[in-house]
Description:
By secondary structure, chain A is an all-beta fold.
Amino acid sequence: NAGVMQNPRHLVRRRGQEARLRCSPMKGHSHVYWYRQLPEEGLKFMVYLQKENIIDESGMPKERFSAEFPKEGPSILRIQQVVRGDSAAYFCASSQRDSGEQYFGPGTRLTVT
Amino acid sequence: AQSVTQLGSHVSVSEGALVLLRCNYSSSVPPYLFWYVQYPNQGLQLLLKYTTGATLVKGINGFEAEFKKSETSFHLTKPSAHMSDAAEYFCAVSDRPTDKLIFGTGTRLQVFP
């Protein structure tokens, strides 16, 4: 059973460009979470999604950030018009319904130049 | 609001010595508590979790943690450190099994020969 997949692993974008981060949950998992880890800091929750629904987006910046988890395909975290402060590691986690155990992917390290 | 405090951003021990990583939490409801480990440039791996029941929880790699409600603590211990334990450790709390995780800022464990 493959684990949580994230791609790309490393992404370099210039200021003003768009970044798209993809997350494929573990097989059978219907819950996806996105977290951001800034250098030398812990992980901060961004958004929690189920298929075709955003359950909790209380950690998402109000502008430029969006997330989706379509019926088919991976979950996408989209950052428009990136700025240097968006440079971070973005982690996706997935869980089964009601399991309480989140499995993390290897992360996407975004660098904005 | 929930929060997690990890005392000591860096802990150093000798190989074979006791490992003690401290975690205190704040939660208005009975918490779900987790310890994760992160190796360099990798995602997070679940070490152990407390949901309900027995307050002493055993995890992988010889780690265990004890939930102490009166002290609002969930400290992580291992009787004998191994070189391979060197990593960053994160304590996390959530309200419900499928809720977002609130992480502490992490403790970097160094193990000296």
